[in-house]
Specification:
87 residues, 3 helices, three-stranded mixed sheet, alpha+beta, 44% helix
């Protein structure tokens, strides 16, 4: 069971950082998303969204990332397994 709180958000952001992505918080009228900016992997999260919405947006981006689990520690691998949809 995934808890939607600040601690979980920090873990998900740390997971992305380990995968080589920079997670930024920004204010504005935009949806959370990911882009490749001059070969830099950047994910921008809307600061106005709730913690739950931020976590869900980051989880929704995971399938596009094709994460290399070799870059992750054991705790992050378990979190990634929990976040990815069962196939």
């Amino acid at each position: 069971m995934l808890h939607y709180n600040e601690n979980t958000l920090k873990k998900v952001e740390a997971l992305y950082k380990s995968l080589g992505y920079q997670v930024r918080n920004g204010k504005g009228a935009f949806n959370t998303g990911c882009c490749l900016l001059e070969k830099k992997k950047v994910i921008v999260v809307n600061s106005f969204h709730s913690v739950e919405a931020k976590i869900l947006a980051l989880v929704d981006l995971l399938p596009e990332m094709q994460p290399d689990t070799n870059l992750l520690n054991e705790e992050q691998r378990k979190l990634l397994e929990q976040l990815q949809p069962k196939q």
